[in-house]
Amino acid sequence: MEHLPQRAKELIEKFQLLSHPEGGFYAETYRSSDSIPGKNRQLLTSIYFLITGTNTSNFHRIKSDECWYFHEGSTLLVQSIFPNGELQTIELGMDISKKEVPFHVVPAGTIFGSHLKDDEGYAFVSCAVAPGFDFQDFELFSRDELLVAYPAHQSIITKLT
Fold first, then answer.
1. In this protein, which residues make up the domain named DUF985 (predicted)?
2. What is the mean pLDDT of residues 106-118?
3. Average pLDDT value for residue range 75-100
């Protein structure tokens, strides 16, 4: 395992976090027993998610809203590229005097990723998806395809691909 802060190692062990295809570490914590009528889709799913300085969440898109809840660690930047090309950066954390927020929703169909603000430490969050997450709805992007579509955001695209 890469060089990780001790607390990040403890969280990975305690919650049995696994490497996520988009980057970071995760463990599913909840999958509702109820599903959408007539569809094989749970109403809600939730995960623990841990990001480190060298293990970012690369740009991806899903077909559901995703709610982010900050638990502890370093400030996490959630980067979103909306369909109109606008880039939004949300600071997820607990220092509200610095305009950080402990909760944020990424709308369905938005390209997004996340990384630590200072590239050091770790951030431990939960993410809830409604309707529930399904890997069929997960789309991971390459650097080349995003640079063609959004050349104005080269710096962050290079970081999160």
1. 9-141
2. 97
3. 97
